[in-house]
């Protein structure tokens, strides 16, 4: 099977898990690989405005449950773990931007003689523009976090891990219970990960999407 065929087969077979097998655990090396995919996800001007909370231990799961809306309670309880995606709220802080620039230098992003000061100034200007208000800044950061979410769902499918995107959480409650406000972060979405239960009927349903000519316009 070619790379193209393999990718399309993976996307055609991937589905949103509704019921998880609580007895099955994700091997640590696979979870680590998925977290590395999250770390490597792209973001506008490389801003990386995210932090990922991996809720996996029984104690952390118990703390999470008050933040879970009723219809998601079973899948959160039975999934191996839940990754909560949070955004950084203080992106215009010079200390954050300085740390980002130093990381890029350490990683060799700039060839000798590169005017990295100009690149840094361009990024700082973009950040100030996107973050003119608190609401606009958080919206921009959330958009970047959802890019990472898309990478995670595809990576999970590639690793044979089932997943469920979770919008049905009380995110304000999570922020309060897990101390995100003190860290100047805000949770925006979550992803349950694990292995489907044998009785998960959603796995048997045909995938339903609009046809390509309804959603794609070639110009």
Automatic annotation (TrEMBL):
Q: Which GO terms of the molecular function aspect are on file?
A: oxidoreductase activity
> What range(s) does the Nitroreductase domain occupy?
12-195
**So which domain of life are we looking at?**
Bacteria
* Regions crossing the membrane: none
User: What is a single Pfam family found in this protein's UniProt entry?
Assistant: Nitroreductase
Which cofactors is this protein said to need? FMN
CDD domains, alphabetized: NfsB-like (cd02149)
The UniProt keywords, alphabetically, are: Flavoprotein, FMN, NADP, Oxidoreductase
Record PANTHER family: NAD(P)H NITROREDUCTASE YDGI-RELATED, NITROREDUCTASE
> Per the similarity annotation, which family is this?
Belongs to the nitroreductase family.
Protein name (Swiss-Prot/TrEMBL): NAD(P)H nitroreductase
Organism this protein belongs to:
Sutterella megalosphaeroides
């Amino acid at each position: 099977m070619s790379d193209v065929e393999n990718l399309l087969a993976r996307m055609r077979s991937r589905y949103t898990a509704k019921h998880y097998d609580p007895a099955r655990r994700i091997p640590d090396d696979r979870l680590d690989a998925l977290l590395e995919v999250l770390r490597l996800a792209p973001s506008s001007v490389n801003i990386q405005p995210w932090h990922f909370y991996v809720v996996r231990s029984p104690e952390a799961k118990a703390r999470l449950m008050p933040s879970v809306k009723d219809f998601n309670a079973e899948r959160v309880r039975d999934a191996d773990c839940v990754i909560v995606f949070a955004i950084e709220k203080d992106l215009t802080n010079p200390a954050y931007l300085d740390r980002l620039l130093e990381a890029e230098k350490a990683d060799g992003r700039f060839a000798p003689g590169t005017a990295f000061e100009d690149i840094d100034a361009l990024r700082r200007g973009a950040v100030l523009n996107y973050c003119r208000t608190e609401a606009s800044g958080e919206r921009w950061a959330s958009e970047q976090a959802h890019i990472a979410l898309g990478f995670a769902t595809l990576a999970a499918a590639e690793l044979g891990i089932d997943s469920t995107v979770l919008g049905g959480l009380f995110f304000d409650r999570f922020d309060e219970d897990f101390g995100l406000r003190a860290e100047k972060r805000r949770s925006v979405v979550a992803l349950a990960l694990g292995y489907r239960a044998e009785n998960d009927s959603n796995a048997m349903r045909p995938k339903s999407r609009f046809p390509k000519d309804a959603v794609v316009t070639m110009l």
